[in-house]
Design goal:
The chain contains 32 helices and 9 strands. The protein is mostly helical and about 750 residues long. Among the domains are: about 100 residues, Serine Threonine Protein Phosphatase 5, Tetratricopeptide repeat (Alpha Horseshoe), CATH 1.25.40.10; about 60 residues; about 70 residues; about 70 residues, Sandwich (Immunoglobulin-like). A hairpin with a 6-residue loop joins β7 and β8.
Amino acid sequence: MKRMIFKTRFILTAALAFVFAANALGQDLKSATLLTKSEQYDKAGEMLKQLIQKEPSNSKYYFYLGENYLLDYYSDTISNSLTEFTNLAKETFQKGINANPNDPLNYIGLAKVATYLNDLKTADEMRTKARSYLLPYKNIKKMTPPAPDYAFALAKIAESFIKEGEVDTAAALPFIRQALKIDAKNPEIYLIAGDIYILAPDGSGAIKNYSMAQYYDPKSPTALMKQGNIYVRGKNLSAAIPLFEEAISIDPNYAPAYRELGELYWRAGRNEQSTTNYKKYIDLSKGNIPAQTRYVNSLFYAGDYDQVIKNVDEILAVDKSRPVMNRLAGYSSFELSAKNKSEDYSKALGYMEELFKALPEERILWKDHHYMARILVRKNQNYTKMVEELPALESQLAREKRNLAAATTPAAKAKIQPAVDDLTAKITALKANISNADKELDRAFSEFEKVSQMKPQDRGVLSEMATQYYFFRRYDKAAKTLARMIDPNDVKLEDLMQVGRAYYNGENYKTADSVFNDVIKRSPDYVPAYLWIARTYTKLDPDYKTGIARPKFEKLIQVAKADSLKYDSEMGEAFGYLGYYFSSKNDYGKAKEIYNRWINLNPNNKEQKIRAYNGLGVLELQAAGNEKTIEGRLAYLARSKDAYDKILELDPNNASAKNQLNYVRDFEAQVRKGINPNEIKGVISDSATKQPIAFASVRVKDTAAESRTNAKGEYKFEIPQSSEALIITAPGYQAKEVPVTKSRVYNIQLEK
């Protein structure tokens, strides 16, 4: 009998111990989930791992741990790695399935992971698997699993359709409605329902469900905070504040509410209150680095970049194991430099270099590559200026070296040598800077390319790439990038034109011509394409020798004349080229016809008429120079004078016309005297080949007096009295300045 009593007592004690242990584990699970809701993901994770260690067969622990990983990732998408956290979650959910294959929750967890990774097929398969363990119910009391668990699983299936602020409402709502039908008192289900409705978007539905969650769990601040967030989204800050404050009154240690209040007060411009709440948030976190990281995130999104950098430096000083914090510091340093219009991006680059050094490639985000690219291009904004400066310095150095070589005494050489040394040092340093900039820009565009690969549908990235390629004169790359932006099923002509112009600017004239002709094939009346084709051929014949651009400009006029007023700018450019071309060939009659057509193109376009009259004035002056008889010269000069008078009628302050008119009058005066003391002539030729340069410009410095060489490189014209220098230019050659002496013959050689 005693043995029986003892045995009974033993059984009872054992049973009670089991009950107490189960209750203790249940309380621990509740505490862990509360830590998760309080965003104490590290602590929650540790507690859940301990529960698993104590009871490895309990599949629910694995589910909550997996969810903790996913929530941890989304609490800090800047610092955390999606790959790392989804892998952790996936591994944990699978362990839960191994512990209990009949528990639907971990299949739902795998569906969530698949949804986050955009693997919708696997997500659907996992939901179907979960549903297979939730057989249709007939009698709630006899359900397996029990009704509350059944309903919760359905709610979690509904939740698995949420991804990055979007939800498939058609798929999610039937599950959440069924869940509430089975268990209408579960606050967790109402919270999930609210999360779905707010993304629907259905603000009233969200508030209704969050209110029900609060009703069934009045001691939880979560529902209040979620309601507050609805008002924040609607920019109704005054309505949100009381809700956050009520959440704090329910649980003064609920840290997320202080963070939300801190951000909200910052938006409202109440900086002191914002700081107070942020400090409280940090204090409650008790030095919790992840919490401080989330605080830094909020500072970044609030645009408080100085504080971001300060806090990151403090975190890294304490915890070197968090190199991802360099990400926020790098982003903030860039934004701060851009905001302050600073040219110094070295600090931002330093943070990003540390980030790239510390993290494996799979943890580098597309934003990291984007910011790195933007930092590098901003850091080298003066690149084009340096490239333009180099030839001028080299030309200056060449002159000083010639002067040094021509110096005949040591004293003269000593006077010139410092300039040579200084220019040499400047050029060496400039070349080194250009070389370094080239390397950094190469990397910048490599980073842009990585962004485009990671976000292939983002046209904004391609547009930014093309813009930067253009800015840094990498025109072929700009063209190819612009071409990638074109939808083959919806080709817009202007998009093609952009590609063609990029090739044109990159001097890839053959490809540019091909693109512009493609435009014409698609739209035979598209005038801008004809213009750019003509411009392309002008570049292929810069000396006007072959005249290959002539038929292109004539075709342009033919197409554009159907609406000459609309296309007067394009037609004006065509007339300008043709007039110039025929002048260079000494075809006076054809050139005059062209200029007169230009004059009559658009009576209301003053600028066009001025340019046309100027062309006619130069033509008549050129003809006067070529004429042998005094009477003939006077006739040409009279018509030239008339052209410049017409310009002054249109624009009385036109300085160029006034100068030209004075020159014509001086010329006329000399002709009437029968003498020409200011006539000069000569031949312009290539210094290397000695070949004549046709249509080179010989201009009197600081005047409009100008002549052009003929096919033999010859020129002859009258220069104004007291002229000091001639400026000789030709396409593809370095300009040259020649002093005017008593000589009347100036044979000049130009260098390429």
